[in-house]
Amino acid sequence: MDTAAPADPDTIRVLALRRLDALTKPLGSLGRLEPAVAQVCAIQRTLAPRLEPAVALLFAADHGIAAEAVSAYPRAVTAQMVCNFLAGGAAASVLSRRFGCELRVVDVGVDAPLPDHPSLERRKVACGTANLLHGAAMSAAQLEAALAAGSDAARVALDRGARVLVLGEMGIGNTSCAALLCAAVTGAPIELCTGRGTGLGDEAFERKRAILRAAWRRHVDDCGGRAAAGPFSAAEARAALCSLGGFEVAALAGAILATRASGCAVLIDGVTVTAAAACAHALEADALEHCLFAHRSAEPAHALLLRHLGVEPLLDLDMRLGEGSGALLALPILHAALALFAEMATFEGAGVSMAVGAPH
Questions:
Q1: Active site residue 323
Q2: CA angle, 249 as apex, 244 and 306 as ends, to 5°?
Q3: Phi and psi at residue 21, in whole multiples of 5°?
Q4: Average pLDDT, integer, range 189-213
Q5: What is the average per-residue pLDDT within 50-66?
Q6: Are 316 and 295 in contact (CB under 8 A)?
Q7: How much of the chain is helix, strand and coil, in % rounded to 5?
Q8: 58 vs 285: CA distance, rounded Å
């Protein structure tokens, strides 16, 4: 394959799609892999893209709303799971090892002391957000600090040569935060945005829905009181992050913004990371051009956010684990897609007829 290509990403995308059409397969038969390949080519501005080195950034923080029993697990589990990541025992740890992805955990708000570890970055804004049921989750100054923490962590990964960044999170209570942000971004009723998170039973789920309804009533005016009309503005995004957000959510938005025009592809994980991506998109219109959406989680807010952003994820496995697991599972799929793009023969090169009756 001729890898020489102009630097313009739109032209590269066209050339990549043209090559995909010329490969020995029916047109479009690789489904969503084809636009994903073209997008990676455009992001990296080459017809010979690569996904190594890959770095997974897991942003971790605690949430004040966890005090309202909106999760099946206590707040202390955030810190315990961070230690599990660092010890290599979590799903994200296993998948990162399996797929050759460096895993780094970024503490932006865990409410506990954490052990020193070479894979831990300390960028703590505070020991968890305030309880958003009773007031704003964070101050404007804390929002800026969290955005900067995410930006700085992403830039360190870029300085280490990352060609793909996998974004994930850990924070007990953050599906509540994501559901509220979904309501703010999309204008959908909070009842439709609320899911079972860590696997709540019926009674606990109804309690979570009641808590989030009350929280939404408290903050709806702060977030613009939207009714799914017009774009979600930068001012609304900042207000929503302060009122409803988490430090890890804001840090994820900062990481997404910092990697624009870097030549590094970003894999977006589940509902919480997608809520952060939606806020980043509101803050900067071109914020998602280098992002690929890895999977559709079982959380109802995720489908609403994906539809709002007009994107189709690579996978739909009914997952709701978080911690970057869905994005990590998409990584080898992308590797395989790029191998097909680089190594498959073209109809002309293989002497295969492109006429009716060609292989299907």
A1: yes
A2: 90
A3: -70, -25
A4: 96
A5: 98
A6: yes
A7: 50, 10, 40
A8: 24
